[in-house]
TrEMBL record:
NCBIfam families: ahpD_dom (TIGR00778). This is Alkyl hydroperoxide reductase AhpD. The lineage of its organism: Bacteria, Bacillati, Actinomycetota, Actinomycetes, Micrococcales. It comes from the Bacteria. Pfam families: CMD (PF02627). Residues 19-105 form the Carboxymuconolactone decarboxylase-like domain. It comes from Glutamicibacter ardleyensis.
Amino acid sequence: MDAMSAISNNAVNLGKVHPEVYQAMIQFNQQADSAFKASGLDPLVAELIKIRVSQLNGCAFCLRMHQRDAIKLGESMDRLAVVAAWWESQYFSEVEQAALALAEEITQLPVPQHKSWNTGVLSDEQMSAISWLAIVMNGWNRIAIQSHYPVAP
C-alpha cells in the first residue's frame, strides 16, 4: 500500500461525522467575514490572506478555491504567483503587506517579538478583522486537510 492509499484509508470527513460542529464553523466564518467587510479593507485583501494562510498550512483544497475567488475579484496572475514571497516583491501595497504579515504571525504562532508589520497603516478594527479571518482560515485548512478533501484536475 502506498502512502496516499494509507492516508485516504484513514481519512474522516469531519463535517459529515460531526455536522453540528461544522455548522458552528460556518457561522464563525460568516462572523469573521462580516467583521472583515465592516473594517473597510478591500475584499481582495481577504482572498490574499486566505491564500497565504493556506500556503503556509499546505491546504491544496483552500488554495485552489481562494485563488479562483481572487481571480474573480480581478486579481492578476503575477500577484498570485508571488504571494508566497510577497515581501520580496513590489506588487503589494503597505496595507496588503501588513495584512499578510499579521496573518503569517497568527498562522505560525512565533515566540512573542516586536511586531514589525505594525507600521500604523492598519486600524485596531482592521487588525482585529484580519486576525479573525486568519484564525478562521487556519481552522478551515485543518478541516480540509484532516478530511482529505479531494483536489483533482
